[in-house]
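Exercise 7. Given the encoded structure of a 286-residue chain, write a plausible sequence.
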């Protein structure tokens, strides 16, 4: 199942069409996308077993109609240096345990946005994002999948000068400017994937001149700490809450790792894609 926030309403996406959940359920489920996570298991059971002959007329939509699929996440976690090649390009050792930071929730946006550049060193980081469906503490690795609502695409945009200023560095604040956590276009439940542990993830930049450069191209099976382990380790410390987002890390190819470094500039369009989920599109404004 593919679940989306379309014009602020909870929807099930089927191909290029969308079913409005509140209408289809006769009001049993709210139209508010943020409210579904507290009833995620009930919702998915209803969605799988509903009488489709009673669905409302499917509606078309544009990608600009899409909002953040979990628009009111109470916790947004980031996992740093979670691909060995990205750690290497950053000049840092492979971590022995997950490197955890946060992206403050006010940075979360939908999949198609304009992003104001707050500085000259804004970088990209394509990421698989886990959306929590059932929360909890002390979750065993073997039970972690039961707590996942699904996967979405995310960009961990980072202002590198701010991120690395001072001792210690300011990871969270440098990654939380307005629009620095675009997500979407949908939440894809795990049964949507032939192999949810190996998904192709990529990012490409198109400049003002129309030239397109692929900057990241990898697979999520290269994660040092996989999704179940991340969920389990986080839950040993914090209570995971329905609707929470976990940015799982980025493959190599970020701008700071290039020689010379490359950063996003006015007019750049960043396309981020994960197979089986979809694409984000950010245009940067100086």
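Solution.
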């Amino acid at each position: 199942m593919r679940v989306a926030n379309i014009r602020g309403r909870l929807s099930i996406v089927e191909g290029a069409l969308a079913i409005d959940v509140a209408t289809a359920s006769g009001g049993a489920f709210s139209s508010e996308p943020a409210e579904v996570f507290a009833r995620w298991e009930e919702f998915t059971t209803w969605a799988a077993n509903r009488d489709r002959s009673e669905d409302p007329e499917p509606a078309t939509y544009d990608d600009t109609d899409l909002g953040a699929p979990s628009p009111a996440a109470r916790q947004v976690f980031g996992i740093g240096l979670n691909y060995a090649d990205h750690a290497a390009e950053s000049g840092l050792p492979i971590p022995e345990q997950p490197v955890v930071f946060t992206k403050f929730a006010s940075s979360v946006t939908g999949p198609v946005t304009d992003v104001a550049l707050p500085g000259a060193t804004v970088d990209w980081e394509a990421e698989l994002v886990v959306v929590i469906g059932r929360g909890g503490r002390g979750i065993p690795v073997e039970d972690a999948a039961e707590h996942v609502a699904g996967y979405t695409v995310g960009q961990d945009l980072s202002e590198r000068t701010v991120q690395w200023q001072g001792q210690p560095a300011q990871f969270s604040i440098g990654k939380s400017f307005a629009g620095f956590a675009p997500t979407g276009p949908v939440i894809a439940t795990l049964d949507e994937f032939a192999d949810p542990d190996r998904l192709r993830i990529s990012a490409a930049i198109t400049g003002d001149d129309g030239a397109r450069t692929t900057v990241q191209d990898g697979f999520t099976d290269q994660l040092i700490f996989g999704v179940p382990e991340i969920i389990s380790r986080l839950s040993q410390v914090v209570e995971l809450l329905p609707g929470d987002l976990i940015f799982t890390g980025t493959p190599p190819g970020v701008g700071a790792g290039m020689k010379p470094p490359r950063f996003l500039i006015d007019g750049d369009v960043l396309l981020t894609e994960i197979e089986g989920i979809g694409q984000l599109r950010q245009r940067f404004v100086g």
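Remark. The chain has a mean pLDDT of 96. Students should compare their own answers with the one above.
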